[in-house]
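Dear U.,

For the methods section draft, I wanted the exact inputs and outputs in one place so we can describe them consistently. I've listed the two proteins in the order they'll appear in the manuscript figures. Please don't edit the C-alpha cell lines directly; just add comments below if something needs changing.

First protein:
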Amino acid sequence: MRVSRRAFLQSSGAAGAGLVVGFQLPALLTAAETAPATFQPNAYIEIVPDGAIKLWVTRSEMGQGVRTSLPAVLAEELEVDLSSVRLEQAMPGARFKGIRLRTSGSGSSSGTFRALRVAGATAREMLIGAAAQTWGVDRSTCRAELGSVVHAPSGRRLGYGGLAEKAGRQPVPGDPPLKDAKNFRLIGTRVRRTDGPAIVRGRAGYGIDVRVPGMLVAVMERCPTLGGKVLSYDGNGALKIPGVRHVVPIKSGISTGVAVVADNTWAAMKGREALTVRWDPGPNRDFDSDRFIRTMEDAFAKEGYPIRREGDAVGAFGAAARKLEAVYEYPFQVHAPLETMNCTADMRKDSCEVWAPTQTPETAYNDIIKNYGLPPEAVKVHTTLLGGGFGRRLFVDYVHEAVELSKAIGKPVQLLWTRPDDMRHGFFHPASVDQLRAGLTGDGRPTAWLHKAVGSDLTMFGLPSEEEKKDPQRYAKDGSPWGAFDNPYGFPAMKVDYVPVDCPVPTGAWRAVEYPSRVFARESFLDEIAGAAGKDPLQLRIELLRPGDVLRLGDQRLDRGRMIRVLELAREKTGWADPKAPSQDRLRGRGVALNTYFGESYIAEVAEVSIARDLSDLRVHRIACFVDCGLVINLAGLEGQVESGITWGLSAALQGKIDFRSGGARQETYSDFRVMRMDEMPAIETHVVPSQAPPSGFGEHSVPPVAPAVANAVFDATGRRVRRLPITAAKLRD
C-alpha cells in the first residue's frame, strides 16, 4: 500500500507526534516497587539527585532549534531554569517503542507542545506532593519555583534532586493543572539557542564528525546516468594509492556504484580517481530535463484526476466577458544541505550500530532489523546533529550503503558523499507545470478559476499500483497537490485537476514539498487577475477571502479571517498604500503573496525589488513576512525559521535549477548551483499576529510565498510577467 505523502510528512504533528502516546506509557513506579535514586515520571524525563533534569529529545536537530524550544516548554511547566535541562537524543528501541522519532511536516513544536506541558506539570505536581509529605503540610501551601518546592508560610525550600526518590512514590495526577499563559516566563519570549555556542565554536557533533575506534573512511564512484549500473570494474589502480584498503561494489541505495575504502578521506578520494568502472547507462541515458518539461505541457490536453469541483467553472469561463490564461513552470531542484550525506556503520555478525544525521532514525532501525535478520536489541541507531535536512534526510539510502559496506569489509566505516555526489545522486524536487485560466466580468469581477497541475509522484512514497491508479480520488483525498487543492479563495466556480507524469528522476520531499511550485503559479496568476481587473492585488485577495468564514476541505479547516488579518497587517506595516518613491536610475516594485499551511498557519509576504532600467540587474531589497502560527513558543526561533525559509525560497526563485543532460544531473557544486550569498540577501522582517490558538509549527512555511512575491514585484516594476523560474535579468530581457 502506497503511503500518503501528507500522512507521512505530517504524522509528527497530526497524531500528537508520539510524545502524547509516550507520556501515557506506564513507566511510573508504584509504592510497592523499589524506589530509584532518580525520579522518572515517564520515558522522557529524569530528575537526578543533583537536581539536573534530563529530557530525551524525540526530534532531530537540523537547524530548526528543537533542542531549545522543546526543553523550554518542559522547563516552563516544570518550573526549572532552562540551563538545568540536560538533553539526551532518543534512540529507536524498547524505551521508545511505538513512539515516532521522525522529524517532518514542521510538526516538532506543534506535535509535542501539549504533551511536554502535561509531562512537566505531572512531574511538578508529584514533586510538590513529595515536599508536602516530607514537611507534613497541606500541599496547597506549597509551590514550585526554579527547581525547588517552597513552603510559602515558613519559607522552607527543598530542591527537586532531594525530592526525586520520594516523588517517584507519589500518585500520578490524571489531569495536572497547566500554567496560565499570562504567567509564562519562557514561552512566547526570545530564547537564545542552547546549542548555539557549541555550533559556532565548532564543538557540536554532526554526522561527519563521528569517530569510532578502528573506523575507515569511504567514498563511492556512482553511475553518471539515472538508473544505470556497474558492468565491471578494475580496482587495482585504486589499491595502489597509499592508504586505500578495499574496493567494494555497492548495490544498496538509489545510485549504485563502487566504494573505495581507505584510512582517511583524502586517500579514499584519490583512490576513487584511480578506479576504472564500465557502466551500463540504463534506459535513461538520453534524459533531458528541458525536453521533459516541454513534454509535460502536452499533458494539459488530458483530463487528469479531479481535485476540486465547485460550480460550473468550464461554463462560467466560456461565458466570461474576459478570459485570462497562463502557464507557469517550476524546474527541478536539489536540497544541497551544507553537510553532505554521510553515515558511520559498524556491522558485525550479531549486531549493528549506526551513527547518522537522519530525520527518520526509526526507518533506519527497522530496515536494518528486516534486511539482516537481527533482533531489535542488537541494533542501535544514533541520531547526530544534521547539517541541514530540508526533507532529503527523510530517506536512509546512505545508511543502507554504509551498513552494506561495513558488512563487506568487517570493520566500522564512515561513508561520505562528496559535494558532487550530493548534488547529482540524491532525491530531487520534481519539475512541474501549471496551466491557469480565469474568467472575468466586464467590470473585472472573477467568475471562474481553472487550474490544471502537471507533475510527478514523489518516488520516496513508492509508485502507485495499477489498482490505486484507478481511484479518481487518490490525490484529492490526500489534499494533493498542496496549494492547488487548498486554494483558499472564494471564486464563484472552481475546477482543479492534476495530471501525473512518469519521470526517471528520483524525487522526494523538498522544503514545503508541493507548496512552492503550486503557490508560485497560484499567487502569480492572482496578480495577473488583479492587473486585468484594475484592482490592487492585496485588496483583491482580501475581497476573495471575505466574509472571512471557515472553508472546510476534507480534514482541513482554512480560517479565512486569520488570512485577512495577516494581509491587513502586511498592508499596515509595509506602507502598501503609500506611493512608490521615485528613482531615476532604477525601476522599483512591490509584490505580495499569501499561503496557508494545511489551514494551521497563515503567511503573507511582501517583497520589494529594484531593477536597472536596462534590465541588466535585479535586486531584492526587502521581504517582510506576516505570520499567524498560533502561540509562538520561541520568538527568536520563529524569526530564525522565517529568515531561513526566505533565504531558501530566494535561492530557488533567483538562482536554483538542476538541469539533466544525457541522463544525469549537470550541476555539481555551489559554484554552478548557486544559493544566496550574504551580500545578496535583502532585509528580512518578521511580524507576528498575536494568537491564542495552539502552536502550529513553522519550519517550511515561509518558503512558498517568496517566489510569487518577488515575481509580482518584478511585474510591478517592469510590467513584465515572470512565469518560469529562476528569475534572471536575462529572462527579463527576452
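Second protein (the one for the lower panel):
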Amino acid sequence: MTASFDPLAQRYPSQRFPIYARGGMVNAPSPQAAAAGLEALRQGGNAMDAAVATAAALTVTEPTANGIGSDAFALIWSEKDQKLYGLNSSGPAPMLASIERIKADGRDVNGKMPVHGWTPVTVSGAPKAWAEINGRFGRLSLAQDLAPAVRYAREGYPCSPNLALMWQRGYNRYKKLLNGPEFDTWYKTFVPEGRPYEAGDMIRLPDHAATLEAIGATNADAFYKGDIARKIDEESRKYGGYLRYEDLAAYEAKWVEPLRVNYRGYQVCEIPPNGQGIVALMALNILNNFTFTEKDSAETAHRQLEAIKIAFADAFHYVTDPAKMAIDYQTLLSPAYGAQRAQEIGARAQVYSHAIPPKSGTVYMCCADGEGNMVSYIQSNYMGFGSGIVVDGTGIALQNRGSDFSLNPEDANCLEPGKRTYHTIIPGFLLRGDGKPVGPFGVMGGYMQPQGHLQVVMNYVDFHMDPQQALDAPRWQWMRDGRVTVETRFNPHLAEALQRLGHDVSVDLSTPSFGRGQMIVRLDNGVLVGGTESRTDSNIACY
C-alpha cells in the first residue's frame, strides 16, 4: 500500500534528548547502519569492529553520499594504548593523470577539472580503511564486520524519507548531466525502474553484496589486487579513464598523528592535511583570543564567521597533499599566528586573503564500546553519488574527488600524478587538556564540515550544551566573500544584526545544506552520552 502521508512533512517541532548508555553506542545517519554496528558489538567486537560494520553498511543504506568507491578518514581512541590514532585513507590521482594530458585529451571544462565521468576518479580508499582498522584493532574478522552490509544489500531495506529526497535530487541532476554509455550502469544500478526510489520502497543492490563479500573474504585484496581491480582497470580503459590496476595495487592507507589545538581546556583533534580539518582548528586557534559568554549574540556569530573565513583563505592557498605543501602546516596552528589573524577581525564583515605565518606553522558516524574505545569515522563519494561511474557487475560507485584538483600548475592543489587532493571529509575528536578522551564528533557536508565542527565544539565547550543540543542548535554557513546562509530556525533578529555588520545573509530552506552530525561524550563513570542529527534520518543504537 502506498503511504497516504507525506513522510517529509514535519508539521510540529520535535524535541530530542541525548541518549545514555553503558555497554556501547553507535551513532549513524541511517538506522540500519547503526544497527549493523551494534550487531558487531553484540557479537563480541569492539568499537573498531562496530565502526567498520557501520561504515560498510552505509555504502548500502546511503549510496546517495558514499559507496565502496569512497575515501575515508578515522580518529580512533584505543583505551588499551591510551592513545588517539589517525588514519588517512584518501586515494591519490592515477599515475597517468596530469594537467598536460587532461588538457591535451580535451577533458578539461573551461580550464577546470570535470565533475563527472572517469577523469575525476581517484583511487578509492574506503575498503583499505576497513581492512586497516579491522586488522590493527578488531576482534572479529573483516567478513564478520561486513556481514550486515552484505545482508542489507542482498535482502533489501526500505527507503527512508530523507534518503528518498537525496535520491530524487541525485537523479534529477544526473538526468541532465550524464549522457553516454559510461553512465549506463549508474542508471541500471540506482534507478532500475526508471525512477528514483520513494520512501517505503525496498532497495536491493545484489552486485554490491557480492563485492562486499569478496572484500571481506580477502581483507580487501580483491579490490586492490584481485579480480575487482582488474575489472576497474578494464572499464577505465574502455571509457578513456586514467585509473589503472597498478594504481590500485600500489595503494596504502596512512596512519598519521592527529592534529590538535588547545581550546579552553580541551584538545580539539583532527586529521592533518590533505584533509580540511585544519580549517576548524585554525578558526578555533583564532577564537582563542576572544571571550564568549552568549551564543545568540551578533558579536559571537560575527567573530565565528570572520575566523572561519580567515581559516578558509589560508587553507585554500596552502592545503594539499602534505608532501607537496609549501609550508609546515603546524605553523598555521601556532598561538602566535592565531593571535596575528585575530587582530584582523574588526567590527564589520571583511573579505580575507591568505597570510604568511611566522616561521617557528560527507557520511559521518561515531561509536564507542563499554571498554572505553571510541571511533570517529567519515567516508564519502564527494558529490552525492560521486562521478556517476558504476563499475559494471560490481555495484561500485566511484568517487569524483579528483574534481577538486586545480589545472593551474601554480596552485598548491594542482593536479600531479600520484598526488592526493585537498579533502573535505573530516572526523573530529575531543580530548581533555590532560589527554583523557571526551569523545568523537563530526558534521558531514562538503565545505560545511569545518564550519559545523567549529559550531558544535563551541556549543559544547563555550556554551555548555549537551551533545544533542550542540548538534540541534541552528547553524550558519559561510558561502563565499560576504555571503552567509542561515537555517529557517535561525534567530531572525540575530540574522538582521549580522546583516547590519556587513554580512550578506539569506535563509536557506534546504536543511541538509547545514550538515548532518553525530557526537558521543564519555563521562568519568564510563556512561556514554550520545547526540544524533535531527536534520536527517540519523539514529543511535546502544545498550
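Candidate sentences for the figure legend, describing the second protein: The domain at 256-364+424-542 is CATH 3.60.20.40 (Glutamine Phosphoribosylpyrophosphate, subunit 1, domain 1). Residues 298-318 form the longest helix (21 residues).

Thanks,
Y.
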